[in-house]
Design brief:
Layout: H1 4-13, H2 20-25, H3 32-67, H4 72-97, E1 100-101, H5 105-113, E2 125-126, H6 131-157, H7 163-174
Antiparallel strand pairs: 1-2
Helix pairs in contact: 3-4, 3-5, 3-6, 4-6, 6-7
Length: 178
Amino acid sequence: MPVARPARRDTTSYGLGLHSWRINSEDSHMPHNLSKAFMFVWIVMVLMGLTFSSIKLSLLYFYRRIFMVNHRGFKRAWWANWIYVVLWFFGATGFYVFQCWPVQWYFMQYYSRYDVEPPYHISGQCNATSTPHVAAPLIVGLVSDVAILILPVWSILKLQLSRNRKAALIGVFVVGFL
């Protein structure tokens, strides 16, 4: 929590959450604040892969502890999910880190867009900054979300319980789907 407060204060002081025209209208050194806001956006995007992968792997290890007794199919599905999440982590992180070359161009490009001299000489290109490109790793990550959420259902259906209890137990695990 102590780390989150200064980060939140810094990002909002540079205008994160506001429209770009308002950020620039209130910035005496336009587009300095816009560039800083997008630097924080870039940092969040890079750390997103680590955050989401940690959550998914913790769920997988939780399921492993509960359900992996002698279910050969569950073990295969668990390992397939684990491999997918780890590969997704490297793919998503690499995608966000290397979508612009050099990396600083992601947030420094706004100086050239507004025909303002940047603090230091830099030029570059971004290949994947449109909404579909930025959302692509999230959409691919959705596959693992669904796979992780339905993973315990298979094991629950094999339990020796009444249909009502199986349905209730599946309901408890599927609450995460909401």
